[in-house]
Task: inverse folding
């Protein structure tokens, strides 16, 4: 019986240490540049989806479309914490496709999600040329995209 008690104590301590580690990691990432803190940062980030043109020396012009994705959620929710932990992987996936990706806290002052065609949080907002290209709401739908092994994020989003 003493061994059983010892095993349970060790299991509980390991789970507690894991939870503290996840909490600490989520707090560190939440305070980093991965997370939009103000409405100005939010709007400036949307502005990064602006289309750009480049004229070569031979006179030909290339047009580049830029895409940004913002995942908005309640900072205290388990979903947001899980998203924070997965976020470095998601940013890498997005970077490989020339997409910028950030998280935003739904409690942000003066943030009106209805302006961006979202009714509920969490919500994934995809912008191209400063216009909303896609809105996906609900933890389950967003998790299907974020946990997908597919590298092509845009095609995953287009499924919804």
Result:
């Amino acid at each position: 019986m003493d061994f059983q008690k010892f095993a349970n104590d060790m299991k509980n301590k390991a789970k507690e240490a894991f939870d503290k580690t996840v909490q600490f990691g989520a707090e560190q990432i939440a305070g980093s540049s991965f997370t939009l803190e103000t409405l100005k940062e939010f709007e400036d980030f949307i502005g990064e989806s602006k289309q750009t043109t480049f004229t070569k020396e031979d006179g030909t012009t290339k047009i580049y479309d830029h895409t940004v994705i913002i995942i908005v959620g309640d900072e205290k929710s388990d979903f947001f914490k899980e998203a924070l932990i997965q976020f470095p992987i998601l940013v890498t996936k997005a970077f490989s496709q020339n997409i910028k990706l950030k998280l935003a806290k739904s409690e942000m002052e003066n943030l009106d999600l209805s302006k961006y065609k979202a009714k509920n949080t969490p919500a994934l907002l995809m912008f191209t040329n400063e216009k909303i290209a896609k809105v996906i709401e609900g933890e389950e739908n967003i998790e299907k995209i974020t946990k997908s092994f597919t590298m092509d994020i845009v095609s995953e989003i287009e499924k919804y």
Summary: The chain has one domain: 2-158. The longest strand covers residues 67-73. Residues 2-158 form a domain with the Glutaredoxin fold (CATH 3.40.30.10).
